[in-house]
Amino acid sequence: MRRSFKFLLRPTRGQVVALTACLADHQQLYNAALEHRRTAYRKAGVTVRYGEQSAELKHIRADDPGGQGRWSFSSQQATLRRLDKAFRAFFDRVKAGHAPGFPRFKGRGRFDTVEWPKDGDGCRWDSQPGHPAATYVRLQGVGQVRVHQHRRVLGTVKTISVKREGSRWFVVLSCDDVPAETLPATGAVAGIDVGLVHLATTSEGEHLANPRHLHTCAERLATAQRDLARTRRGSNRRRKAVARVAALHAKVRRQRLDAAHKAALALVRDYDVIVHEALKVTNMTRRAAPKPDGVGGHLPNGAAAKSGLNRSILDAGWGVFLTILSHKAESAGRELITVNPANTSRTCSRCGHCAAENRVTQAGFRCTACGHTAHADVNAAVNILRAGLALRDAARAA
């Protein structure tokens, strides 16, 4: 099993300068390689590939020993592979008929990660194993950087990445052969229905809270964004205002991740089989489509209400929660089943009658056929569980 471990770095002031320079040089390499490909195709119709650009690295490093030559050759190759991957994804989207999205040049805010493909090649995890009180990672051109290691690293470290998030720096380890932490069987099964009032509701009637961290931070965030809007581009005041807004968003993100981890862990510990809906959050949070009135204007399309709903869905973090739940279930040896979400909230879990009128309110469910009443989310979770168990039985019978 492959797993990633993320730790906060504690660099010195000089190491922060070096890390920033490393990121800037890799960003410059990425943009130069992208320009090389664009120009070659536009001027001569020639397609430049990764192998050709990687072969030129030796000359680039020799011509710029105080810049590109400072950093690990393998990390620069990883940056060129990143560009190559972006082009392959672009051509795959073209073939599939999707919106292609040609690879773009990366500004400072869009290039925040440098990867070393192999532990020991330009980098070394736990480079001072004999140190009695701290863990260090050695990075070529930066030095021995202290790591705040808050948990044990399992498996074999394969790749090492350094990532900048606002004013913080993190090291991300991708490890192979991580042993599964199988939990003892409980014999319990559950369906879960995600929502906005509660993050998730189980078929047994348990509600997992939705902390709504963005809503809680909305007033402070609005104040910070108003201050940002009043600043002049390029000014020192604007730089500080941008940092304040970024810090607030980063805090909300960390809080949301923490809540999702805790909720997923609680479910994995309690149930052997977990069933949830296969939600497409990206499609659910698209903007409302405009409605032309035929005379050059537009009809009301509920864009304001849809915008508020999208914000609430993203604040709940359904996609993050379900992704973390799948990872924890795999590690713990639990079975996770996904089902089609169609009509799960309007079907009676007692008689099977399906009608929009069954959903009386956001929390209320009353079947118009048999009169069964229940909490709407619990009723939906029961339907989800039954659909998941039916899928499992059909797969086993086949």
Automatic annotation (TrEMBL):
GO BP of this protein: DNA recombination; transposition
Record has DNA-binding as a keyword: yes
Chain ranges of the Cas12f1-like TNB domain: 318-384
Keywords in alphabetical order: DNA recombination, DNA-binding, Transposition
Database matches in InterPro entries: Cas12f1-like_TNB, RNA-guided_DNA_endo/Transpos, Transposase
UniProt GO MF annotations: DNA binding
Boundaries of every Probable transposase IS891/IS1136/IS1341 domain copy: 181-287
Domain of life: Bacteria
Coiled coil region boundaries: none
Recorded family membership: In the N-terminal section; belongs to the transposase 2 family. In the C-terminal section; belongs to the transposase 35 family.
PANTHER family found in the cross-reference section: RNA-GUIDED DNA ENDONUCLEASE INSQ-RELATED, TRANSPOSASE
Protein name: Putative transposase
Species this protein is from: Nonomuraea muscovyensis
The organism's taxonomic lineage, starting at the top: Bacteria, Bacillati, Actinomycetota, Actinomycetes, Streptosporangiales
